[in-house]
Amino acid sequence: MTDQIEPIEAEAHCDGPCGVYDPASARIAAEAVQSMTTKMNALNNPIANGTNDQFIAYLNTMSRYAAIKEEEAQKCKDELLILWTDFFKPQHLESIPNLHDKFWQAAKLCSACKVEVSDQHAQELIDACEEIHNIFWAAKGLDVPWIRAS
Fold first, then answer.
1. 148 touches 27 (CB < 8 A)
2. Rounded-to-integer distance, Cα 53 and Cα 57, Å
3. Which of 61, 95, 96, 147 sits 20 to 30 Å CA-CA off 88?
4. What is the CATH number of the domain that holds 64?
5. Could you give the C-alpha distances from 63 to 51, 75, 76, in angstroms and in order?
6. Residue 20: per-residue pLDDT
7. At a CB cut-off of 8 Å and minimum separation 6, what does 95 contact?
């Protein structure tokens, strides 16, 4: 006969119960996405009147901007998903019934910003992060102002 060990019931709000949550990291990443999008749209393509060296420099700069934009969009998505899945609890849905949709839409904007160079979607991502910022701090009973780094 094998002795059976009773399972221990443990509860934690996340994978590592640190208790540290702040939507600021998502905001910073979204601001970087918007900055890189603006820079990409403003970059002058010398293909018509430039030299080969100018075109190579353009490609290098554009590819760097694109890599940063995609990396920051993924960071933003990761940070939003942590807030959504680890901080917010079922009781929050009682006072914020559209919580899931807000986070789902924000995550979809992160994906759109990764694959597009859209000023509109970059601004929509900033707006979504601001809304989530306000929801998060209200859920904690605090009034924390939205302040952009850029």
1. yes
2. 6
3. 147
4. 1.20.120.400
5. 18, 18, 20
6. 86
7. 139
Planar angle of CA 35, 125, 93, nearest 5 degrees? 150
Residue 74 lies in a domain: yes
Tell whether 149 is covered by a domain. no
Model-level pTM? 0.86
Number of domains in the chain: 1
Q: Which amino acid appears at position 38 of this protein?
A: T
Q: How far apart are CA 72 and CA 26, in angstroms?
A: 9
Query: Which residue segment(s) compose the domain that 75 sits in?
Result: 24-139
**How far is the C-alpha of 30 from the C-alpha of 57, rounded, in Å?**
26
Of 5, 20, 31, residue with least CA distance to 122: 31
81 in a domain, yes or no? yes
Measured CA angle at 62 (ends 54, 106), to 5 deg? 165
DSSP SS3 for 140: coil
- Please list the alpha-helical segments (H only) found in the chain: 24-42, 52-82, 90-95, 99-115, 119-139
pLDDT in tens, 3-62: 677 766 645 445 566 778 999 999 999 999 999 999 999 999 998 888 999 999 999 999
Dist. CA 115–CA 69, nearest whole Å? 9
Residue 6 resides in a domain: no
